[in-house]
Amino acid sequence: MSKTRVEWIDLVRAIAILTVLYIHATDGIYIISSDAIMNYTLFSRIFQFASLFVGRIGVPFFLMITGYLLLDRSYDDERIKKFWSKNCKNLIIVTVIWAIIYAISLQFVTLNSPAVNPVEAGNLFFSHMWYMP
User: Fold this and answer.
1) How many CA atoms lie within 13 A of 3 on its CB side?
2) Handedness of CA 19, 21, 26, 27 (dihedral sign)
3) Helix extents (H) in the chain
4) Number of structural domains, the chain?
5) Last residue of a domain, one of 49, 73, 97
6) Based on the domain organization, do 51 and 89 belong to the same domain?
7) Would you tell me how many other CB atoms lie within 10 Å of the CB of residue 4?
8) 12 with 61: CB under 8 angstroms?
């Protein structure tokens, strides 16, 4: 079977990479309240909008590419079993390892800084794991 390169996937992947970098670089720099927003300049309001909405499109783009590449073939029972046995174990192991690392880090942060709200700190450490298995 000859594999041909699908060029639009490279473009979507590049956009996704840039938006993920953008959101990581700008996330949390703005206070989101109506009073604060009213004091921003027009440029700051546009930049904030881009930071909140445009920057978050990267992960769905990566998921879309993955779905396209996985669904662009035929699957029989044997191939499905092979896919899950090959990928599922690794995903679960990585998820558990990072959850443990985050839980230990969360304990360290909340125990050493009594002023830190554990719920807010938990959001900081675990909110990005919504798409993990």
Assistant:
1) 5
2) positive
3) 7-26, 34-38, 42-52, 58-71, 77-112, 118-126
4) 2
5) 73
6) no
7) 5
8) yes
User: Angle of helix 42-52 relative to helix 7-26, nearest 10 degrees?
Assistant: 120
Q: pLDDT tens, 75-131? A: 788 888 887 888 888 888 888 888 888 778 777 777 777 666 666 666 666 666 666
The answer to whether 9 and 65 are in contact (CB under 8 A) is yes
Joined together, the tokens standing for residue 133 give 């298995």
Domain span at residue 106 reads 75-133
Residues 9 and 38 in one domain: yes
63 in the same domain as 85? no
Report the sign of the C-alpha dihedral through residues 73, 78, 84, 89, in that order.
Answer: negative
* One domain for residues 56 and 85: no
Q: Final residue of a domain: which of 42, 58, 73?
A: 73
Quote the pTM value: 0.56
Burial of 58 (0-12, 13-18, 19+ CB in 10 A): buried
Task: Count the residues in the chain.
Answer: 133
d(CA 68, CA 128): 23
